[in-house]
Amino acid sequence: MADHYEVLGVSRDANSDEIKKAYRRLARELHPDVNSAPDASERFKSVTHAYDVLSDPQQRQQYDLGGSNPFGGGAGASGFGGFGDIFESFFGGGASRGPRSRREEGQDALIRVEIDLDEVIFGTHRDIDVDTAVRCEVCEGSCCQKGTQPEKCDICAGSGSINRAVRSLLGNVMTQSPCGSCRGYGTTIPHPCPTCAGQGRVRGRRTVSVDIPAGVSTGVRLQMPGSGEAGPAGGPHGDLYLEMKVRDHDLFSRNGDDLLCQVDVSVTDAILGTTCTVAALDGDVTLEIRPGVQAGDVLTIAGRGITRLRGSGRGDLKVGVHVVTPTKLSTKERQLVEQLAALRKAAAPSISGHGQGLFARIRDRVFG
Predict the structure, then answer these.
(1) What is the mean pLDDT of residues 154-165?
(2) Which of 22, 73, 323, 341 could bond 295 through an S-S bridge, CB–CB 3.0 to 4.6 Å?
(3) Is pLDDT at 78 greater than 60 in this prediction?
């Protein structure tokens, strides 16, 4: 097999531009449509195959190291590229599909957004800065310098593919592969936009406004169609996904749509009952503590929890009671407590027979 560098007439250290120029010159000269010489078709195939190998960095490295593949496949092709082309010819793979479009849809983007627990109750609005691919404002996604436009490839005549004959056990079979000059686009960009390097998009920052609904929780993702990366060559945007992270609160926690907190009650207020004001996340609320309330009891304030994400209404605010026992008493206070103990004649402390501990009962009342 002839040396690929000799076929193209370039040195072994030629760069990609030199290889491409040599291929374009020889392809125009040897193309079967313009050259009727008997060996023109074979030489054209050799030139095209050499360019396919040397224009691909991976294949060129393999070739320079002494590897070869008569079917032009890359590493791992194992020499089956030709048979693949044969099967494609029989089953429709070799049919002309036309040039592929430079315009492609952009990729989706994912951003994590942190919000406070009080913002979850009614929802909130955020303006979020997104660092992503945006359309090039200089060429407006055309990929070309101003005043220029893509030109039809003179190698494939705008078809985006090259037909060639491959020898097989079944004889000569016509196969089709993407044009090596235009990469299958059917057009070339001789004067690419210097701002985006002919991509039609650049990295940039833009601001996205989003209304975060009430009731979201950590891990919930909000989809914003068309707010992701801009596609190449002015292609449509992908989608933007916002993944929620709800920050922990110092006083309140969450169980589904319910808010949980704790109130400290003195022994006397627990005995006699009282009324207090609880500073909830969405404003003050009055809490009635009934006489004889027990440590671990849970008092429910209906409709003061979190707005439901799906459905209507709000959850509840559940307040766990913590009875605070004084550790220091004055002489008079101790005398009064002793008088109360004598009047009530309470039984000595004993192990409870309820079958579960105090903390388990609190858990069941709050989370059950």
Answers:
(1) 84
(2) 323
(3) no
The parent domain of residue 196 ranges over 99-247
Ligand-binding annotation for 182, yes or no, is: yes
Q: DSSP for 243-278?
A: EEEEPP-SS-EEETTEEEEEEEEEHHHHHH-EEEEE
- Is 143 part of any known ligand binding site? no
Is 136 marked within a binding site? yes
**311 falls within a domain:** yes
Among 79, 114, 147, residue at a domain's last position: 79
| Residues 136, 52 share a domain | no
Residue with structure tokens 């292609």? 235
Model pTM score:
0.62
Question: 152 and 55: one domain?
Answer: no
Give how many domains the chain has, as a whole number.
Answer: 3
Tell me what pLDDT residue 210 has.
93
Ligand-binding annotation for 144, yes or no, is no
Q: Is 193 annotated as a binding residue?
A: yes
- Chosen domain end from 224, 247, 270: 247
Consult the annotation and say whether 196 binds a ligand: yes
Taking the CA atoms of 198, 199, 203 and 208 in sequence, report the sign of the dihedral they define: positive
Same domain as 230, residue 106? yes
Asked whether the predicted pLDDT for residue 113 surpasses 90, the reply is yes
CATH of the domain at 23: 1.10.287.110
d(CA 102, CA 232): 7
Q: Would the annotation count 179 as a binding residue?
A: yes
Which CATH number covers residue 259?
A: 2.60.260.20
Helices (H) and strands (E) in the chain, counts: 9, 15
Average pLDDT over residues 308-333: 90
pLDDT digits (tens, 9 = 90+) for 231-272: 999 899 999 999 999 999 999 999 999 999 999 999 999 999
Whether the pLDDT of residue 87 is over 70: the answer is: no
